[in-house]
Write a structure and sequence with these properties.
Elements (H helix, E strand, L loop, with lengths): L2 H11 L2 H9 L1 H14 L5 H38 L3
Length: 85
């Protein structure tokens, strides 16, 4: 991923709207609760921290990929709309 793409994605993810979605989206809240219930019985703080780091890295990678995909779809739709008579 280019530095510019990385900067753009970070800018998108650092908005109030993104924070609202992250805090209020029902699917995200359900997944967060499930993760917390799975992690709770793990006694080793080191293992819990390592697992949460891995989940966070996966989540970030998925968010970036979804954002890039959304941008490509948007560009394709705009291009198609501009070709309409």
């Amino acid at each position: 991923m280019s530095a510019l793409t990385d900067e753009l994605i970070q800018a998108i993810h650092q908005t109030d709207e993104w924070d609202r979605i992250w805090a209020q989206d029902p699917a995200i809240q359900e997944a967060r609760a499930k993760l917390e219930s799975v992690m709770e019985p793990i006694e080793s703080k080191e293992l819990r921290d390592s697992l949460l780091d891995a989940v966070s890295a996966l989540t970030t990678a998925c968010e970036y990929a979804a954002t890039r995909y959304g941008a490509r779809v948007t560009l394709a739709l705009l291009s198609a709309a501009n070709k309409q008579p």
